[in-house]
Amino acid sequence: MKRCIAILLSCSILFLTACMEKEQPSYDKKAMFINYADNLIQPAFTTYGQKLTALKTAFTNFSTTSDATNLTALQTAFLDAYAAWQSCEIYEKTTPSDEVMAIDNNNYFPSRADSITAYIQRGSTSLSFVKGRIKSDKGLPAMEYLLYGKDNAQTLIQFTTDPNATAYKAYLESLIDNCIQVNTDILTKWTSYRDIYINSLGTDAAGSLSLMVNSIARRIDDFKRHQIGIPAGYQGNVKTIYTKPEATQTYYANKSVEYMLLTLDNLEKVLNGKSAIDTIGGNGLINYIQTLNYTSTFGGNLADDVLTQIAVCKTKATACGTNYAHTVITDIAKADALFLEAKKLLVLMKVDVPSALGVSITYTDSDGD
Amino acid sequence: MATNDTSITSKIHSFLFRTTSIAPLASFRILLGAMLLFSSIRFVAKGWVDLLYIQPTFYFSYEGFELIRPLPGIGMYVVFSIMILSACCILLGLFYRIATILFFLAFTYVELLDKTNYLNHYYFVSIVSLVMCFLPAHKFASLDVRFGLTKPKQYIPIWFIYILQLQIGIVYFFAGIAKINPDWLLHAQPLSIWLKSRDYLPIIGFLFDYKIVWYLFSWFGMLFDISIFFFLIHSKTRPYAYAAVVFFHVVTGWLFQIGVFPYVMIVATWIFFSADFHQKFLRLFSFIFKQDVPSETQSSNNTYQLSFAKFWVLLFAVHFIIQLLLPFRYILYPGKLFWTEQGYRFSWRVMLMEKNALTTFVVKDKTGKIEEIQNCHYLTPQQEKQMSTQPDMILQFAHFLAKEYNTKHGFQQAEVYADSYAALNGHPSRPFINNNVDLAKQPINFAPKSWILPFEKLQP
To answer: CB distance A26–B381 less than 8 Å?
Structure first.
C-alpha cells in the first residue's frame, strides 16, 4: 500500500513539474475595462453628443435663415454626426445603451418615408412626439430622408415655401432633440455605471466581458444583416432573387460603403483597445484573446484570424465601390462575396470567441451544473 | 453447495435487513426538507417561474411527455406554492406521506415541462423525493409523531439508509467516470477555460493562470468523484471525506454558477454519518418535536416493519439496475458523445462542456417562399442558448417551425433547414448540422441522428 502511494506520488510530481513549466500570462481585465469605459465608450458618446449639438446649431441657423448655404452646412453637420454614430453603435449591449435602446432611437434603417411624410402632412408642429414613434420613423435615417430625400432645390422648398414647411422643420428638430436626449441619458447613466462596469470581472450575464462580447457580436450581426444582407436580398442567410437597394444604409445620402468601412475600422479599434487617447492600443479584447492562444475555426490563432477576417471584409467592402445600393443592382456578386465574409466574421465572434473566453451569447441568469 | 447458498443468502439477508436506528433517516428528512424549501423559494424569488414557465411560447418537451404542458394563469405559481408548502411539511414531518408525494409530483411535473431547464441536480431531487415517498422518515422526530398521527418507531431495516447512500454514491461515481475522457484529463478542458476566466478573483485568482492548476483541478475532481463514496462509507475515513465534500462543493460553488447544487450535495452526504451522530444532531430539534432520542432497546414494537419487504427490495434493485445502465446508453450511438449529446442527460454528467453554437433556421416551401427565423421571436434567451447546442432540441424546434409556418404563414409542406456552427471544449468551431437535410422530415425519436455532422471531420 505504502509503496503504491509512493509510486503514485512520484508519478504525479513528475507530471506536475512537466506542466508547471508553461504559465499563461495573466491579463489585467480591469485595466482593459477601464480603457474601454474611459478611453473608448464614453468618449465615443461624448463626441457624438458634440456632433449632435453642432447639428442642432446648424439646424437653428438654417431655421432662421433658410437658404442654400445653411442647408449645405446643415447637411454637413448631419453627416458629421452620422459618422460619429458609427463609433457608438458597437456599445449597444452595454447596459446604459441597452436600457435606452440606443440603436432604435438613433439608427434603425431603412426609415419609412411614407409614414414620416404622412405624419408631417397632418401639419403637427409638436416637438415631443418622437418618443412614441416607431423606430423606422426616427433617428438619423429619418433625418437623412428629410435632408437628402429630394434634391437640394426641392429640399429647400420643403423647408420654406411648402404648406407644411413648419411641420417639416418641427419634425427634423424633434428628431435631433430626441437623439440629443437619448445620448445625454446614456452619458449620464455611464457616469454612475462606470464603476460597476470596470469591476464586473466575472463571466456571468452581468459581467462586463459577457456584455462586451455580446455587444460586439450584435454589431457584427447588424453589420451583416442590415448593412449588407437585406439590401442584397438576403433573408438572414438565405439569398432570394429580390434585392432591396432602397434598404441600404444612407440610401439618399450615399455613404453606405464609407460607413461600412467606418464600422470595420471602429471594430478593429475597439478590439485592439485603440482610441484617440491611446493610439497604440494593446489593451483590448483581442489582446486578451491573444494571451489565450486559442485556435480558430480557420485553423490559425483566433485573435489573428479575427483581425484577418476584418481585413478581408474591408477588402470586399471596398470592392463594392462607393454606392452599395448601386452595387446590389449592377454587380450582386460583389455584395454576395462581402456577405459571405461577414458571415464568417460573425461565426468567429459568436461561437469561437465566447468559447475561448468562457462567456455565452444571449446569456441569462440561470444555474448550470 | 446448498449450505453455501443459504449462507450467502442469509448474509445478504442480514446485510440488508438488520435493524438500525431511524435517526439518520429522520435527520436526512429535516435537512432535505430545509434544502427543498430554500431552493423552491429561491426559484420563485429569482423570478424564474415567470421567465421559464409563463413567458415562453414554445416548450421543449421530453420525448413521450408531450402532453405535459404548463398551467395557464396563476397555475404555475400554485404548483410552486404546493412545492414550498410540501417542502415545509417534509422538514417538519407533518402529513409526511402526502407531502412527499405532492412534492415529488409537483417538482417532477415542473422539470418535465422543458428540457432546456434540465439540470442533473434537479433530476437528483426528483429521484430522492420519489424514494422518500416510500421511506418512513416521519416515524421519528416529526410533528406526525408529536400529534399522534403516526406511531413512533426507533428502528428501521438498514437497507432504507443504504438506498439513499447508494443513490448519492451513484451521482458521484458516474460524475467521476464521465470525467475520464481526453478533454478533461489530457487537455484540462473545459476547466482551463473556466478557471482562466476567473483569474481576477481575490487571493487565489492568480493561481488560475497556471496550467498546473487546471490539471490539478481536473484530476482532483475526477479522483474525488470516483472515490468519495468509498471513503464516506468507511467510518475511519468518513470525517476527512466529509471535510473534502464540503471543501469541494464550497469551492466549486464559489467558482462556478451552479446554484444550489453544492449545498444539495453537502446536505445529502450527511446521510453517511453514524446513528450516534444523527441522534446528537436530532437533539437540537427536540424542542419542536418533543421526542427524545431513543433510549429503549429494540423490540418488535418500536421497529418499523415493512410488509412485502422482499418485493420492495426487488423494486429498488430494479431501480438501481436502471440507474446503473442509463449512463451507458450513449454507447448505442455513433459519434462523439459531447458533440451529438445522444444519451447525454440523466447520467450525472456535470460541468463537462464549454459548448457554444450559432444555429439559424431557414423555412422554405415548394412555392418558393423562403424565410429565415429569428430564434428570439419564439424562444427565450435561455431556450435559444440550450437549443443551439443540442441536436434533439434543434429537431424539436424545426418541427415546431414547420407546423407554425404551415398553419400561420400559409406555407405548403414547409421544409426546415438548420445552419449551425458549434465550438466544444476549446476546439475551434465547425459545422454542426447538415444544412441540406430537411429537419421537418426527420422523425423525433431515440434513433441515432444521421444529420449531425461528425465532430472529427473538420471542414474547410
So the answer is: no
Q: Same domain, yes or no, for A206 and A340? A: yes
Can you give the residue ranges of every domain in chain B?
20-288+300-329, 354-441
User: Is some CB atom of chain A closer than 8 A to the CB atom of B421?
Assistant: yes
Q: Does B211 touch chain A (CB under 8 A)?
A: yes
Q: In this complex, how many residue pairs, one in chain A and one in chain B, have their CB atoms less than 8 Å apart? A: 147
Model-level ipTM above the cut of 0.90: no
With respect to residue A30, please indicate whether it lies within any of the assigned structural domains: yes
Residue-wise DSSP of B368-382: S-EEE--GGGTS-HH
A30: nearest CB among B200, B370, B374: B200
CA–CA min distance A115, chain B (Å) = 25
Q: Which residue of B has its CA nearest to A364?
A: B382
In this complex, do A27 and B259 lie within 8 Å of one another by their Cβ atoms?
A: no
- Shared domain check, A191 and A115: yes
Provide the whole-model pTM.
Answer: 0.89
Q: Is residue A62 part of a domain?
A: yes
- Tens of each residue's pLDDT in chain B, 460 residues: 445 567 888 888 888 889 999 999 999 999 999 999 999 999 999 999 999 999 999 999 999 999 999 999 899 999 999 999 999 999 999 999 999 999 999 999 999 999 999 999 999 999 999 999 999 999 999 999 999 999 999 999 999 999 999 999 999 999 999 999 999 999 999 999 999 888 888 888 889 989 999 999 999 999 999 999 999 999 999 999 999 999 999 999 999 888 899 999 999 999 999 999 999 999 999 888 887 666 667 777 788 888 888 899 999 999 999 999 999 999 999 999 999 999 999 999 999 999 999 999 999 998 888 888 889 899 998 899 999 999 999 999 999 999 999 999 999 999 999 999 999 999 999 999 999 999 999 999 999 999 999 998 654 4
Strands (E), chain A: 234-235, 238-239
> Residue A171 sits in which domain range?
26-197
Kindly state whether residues A177 and A236 are assigned to the same domain. Answer: no
Smallest Cβ–Cβ distance between A352 and the set B211, B384, B429 belongs to B429
Report how many domains make up chain A: 2
Residues, chain A:
369
